[in-house]
Amino acid sequence: MSLNEQVLSYPIPADAALEPPAEWAELRGKCPVAHVTLPSGDRATLLTRYADVKQVLADPRFTRQLNAPDAARLSAEGGGVFNSEIATIIPDGGEEHQHWRRLVGKWFTAKRMTALRPSMTEIADQLIDDMVKRGLPGDLRAGLGFPLPVYVICDMLGVPAEDRDRFSYWSDTLLNLTRYGKAEIDAAQGEFFQYMSDHVAAKRSEPGEDLLSELIAAGGPEDGGLADIQILVTGMALLVAGHETTANMIGKMVSMLLADRSRWEALLADPSLIRTAVEESLRLDANSGFGLPRYLREETEVSGTVLPRGTTVVCSMAAANRDESAFEAAAEMDLSRSPNPHLSFGSGAHSCLGQALARTELQVVLEVLLRKLPTLELAVPVEELERVEGLAVGGLRTVPVRW
User: Fold this and answer.
1) Three-state SS for 65?
2) What is the superkingdom listed in this entry's lineage (predicted)?
3) Which of 265, 251, 273, 287 is nearest to 140 (CA)?
4) Minimal CA–CA distance to 64: which of 81, 49, 44?
5) Would the pLDDT of 88 be above 90?
6) Do the domain assignments include residue 399?
7) Cα–Cα distance between 267 and 261 in angstroms, integer?
8) Domain-embedded: residue 304
């Protein structure tokens, strides 16, 4: 049976933690618009080619409104970050969405990131010292990858970092595909909502130097600001987005660079490659998770295939990032690749708001690791690295290292 007639289960499993499923190349070549079954049992359409993914992410007819009655549910339990009410509170498109991005985006400019760099470097230095004190082997994910982005995003939101274990659990339930049951998800989201609600109320009475205080100070919708519920949900969304993805990416990036020690040696010899190495790690990440789902409000054509209204499309940016028609030697890791127009942060009006933050964190991690632990290596064969399962974001369970 050809791929065109076959319905694949999605996400497609891969044999190795850092490698893509073999099906991606086959789909890009023969079946760029494929039928898949999601963890919920619902059907969706999967896109794997660079041009198609880029087109759909930039097309306003493909929306994030996955709570439409005929939209596919990602997980059987529903209520994840894509299907929940939360997704509808932040405006999805048009002028309202641009307005929201302008208000929140002021906190994520390259200029702000440059100002944050020294404190990020200090946090990374301290976390690595603590990891070294705990002795060998270290777990780079638990010791550095996870805490660094959490400290940074908590600081930006004015949230106490000692609550980070709760945030981690709440985030995981929002990113659920197959790991949690409905009752557990509902309870966790209720707690998260209450926590943020109390936090916003506290900021209202005692503002600080943080993003939420600034959003409150901008006034309500009548003053050109956001409604209370939008501020609250923005806080939740940034907390989830700000820690899971980057925390996982730190572990994957360092693993990719250590999987072939000559890459690490090249960076030690020439640290000016750090910036392009970060971009190439983002492009080559074969374990980025679910991809971006979009719901189609009207009939549209993609790659010569007519998609009816009501179709749920999944854009696999990770598969698109390995498209030979967009990147020369796409399967190879080229630490000096430039330009590198990868789609890891999406594209168009909804491209990732926090991409300057993620890039800065990834660059700082490499700078500090290369300086402090030049002899760093994986403490297990790369074949033994294990993927995080059952969530909408991809990552490694642990990253055992020695130095």
Assistant:
1) coil
2) Bacteria
3) 251
4) 81
5) no
6) no
7) 10
8) yes
